[in-house]
Amino acid sequence: MAFMAATDHSNQLRTAGLQALEDIIKKFASVPEPEFPGHVILEQYQANVGAALRPAFSPDTPSDITAKACQVTVLIGSPQIHLLTSQLRHAR
């Protein structure tokens, strides 16, 4: 749901979606993946996270939405979920 909201046409919904995404990442950043030791559960959503953030960095996006997406991107760069950054690198 957060992924869909973050890419909606409504700026209010996009902001709320990015906030929800930030909250989810904070809560689940260090939750281990039970089926794959040494991995975190959020790794399976890396494509979704990248797809939800990509539109926030387009030139026509309002600055407050881009700023919120930057906050989420900083979380992705944290050591707990470093593997999600590979998806963002490919988005460029």
TrEMBL record:
InterPro entries listed in its UniProt record: Laa1/Sip1/HEATR5 (IPR040108), Laa1/Sip1/HEATR5-like_HEAT (IPR046837)
Top-level taxonomic group: Eukaryota
GO cellular component: cytosol; endocytic vesicle; Golgi apparatus; membrane
Pfam families in alphabetical order: Laa1_Sip1_HTR5
GO biological process: endocytosis; intracellular protein localization; retrograde transport, endosome to Golgi
Coiled coil: none
Name this protein carries in UniProt: Uncharacterized protein
